[in-house]
Fold this sequence. Notes:
Blueprint: H1 20-25, H2 35-47, E1 55-59, H3 65-72, E2 77-82, H4 85-98, E3 103-106, E4 122-128, H5 137-145, E5 148-159, H6 163-172, H7 174-177, H8 185-194, E6 197-205, H9 221-243, E7 259-266
Parallel strand pairs: 1-2, 1-4, 2-3, 4-5
Antiparallel strand pairs: 5-7, 6-7
Helix pairs in contact: 3-4, 5-8
Amino acid sequence: MVIASEKLxxxxxxxxxxxxxxxxxxxxxxNPKRLCDQRIIALLNRxxxxxxxxxxxxxxxxxxxxxxxxxxxxxCSVSGVDIEPHAVELTRANxxxxxxRADVFCRDAFDVKGNEDLIAQFDFVYSWGVMEHFDDxxxxxxxxxxxxxxxxxxxxxxxxxxxxxxxxxxxADLERYEMHVIYNPEKLxxxxxxAGLKTVEVGYIGFCDGWLTASQPTTSALRRRIHERVCxxxxxxxxxxxxxxxxxxxxxxxxxxxHVFYVxxxxxxxxx
Length: 272
């Protein structure tokens, strides 16, 4: 059973460090020059039908760089849902800073009855760093699929806390590690297929991300400094590798890739 993670998303909880004013001045958005972000953008381009002016929904959108990314596009309608009021305000500030537009709702995305206005309204629904915090993921994936129009697609991205990432997160903060269900592509696909979705694509994504893992305010100062230093070296090494031709040989290794993803389609309609 995973440890409850609700405290992380609250103000002062250790996940959000930026203020609203900081985000308005320096928004957090994807960087197309980063190899990991390039691969995420390529994944989105494979599954979002941009020519159809899609309606897009993010689940758990707190301070999301990708909601801002979608909101910067001119041919789609974008919405986000987050249960935590502080996270919602940060999201809105980040959108302002990025010059992006989106409707942001402070709601429980898993309360489908409270979101009847969102049911079957979206061509593409995605969550990033949400599903791994629950012990009943198939039930929750089934709930989220109700927001997808027939033939639309659901994308789930979770951290890959295996291999190097597992070692770093357990060193930085064991409690935070235990807030996660650990997934590989097969396990993530099985969860969504049990929820009634048809698998379209599943796998690891991103070569390496030195900043995937994190400590908490309760982590000792020495352990925090060691973790930050190791992550900095790993991140700089990855950047140097990708800029000197490494992108030609930067596969998604199970022991190194930062994320696991799943794309599924509702079975009661046609796809993209």
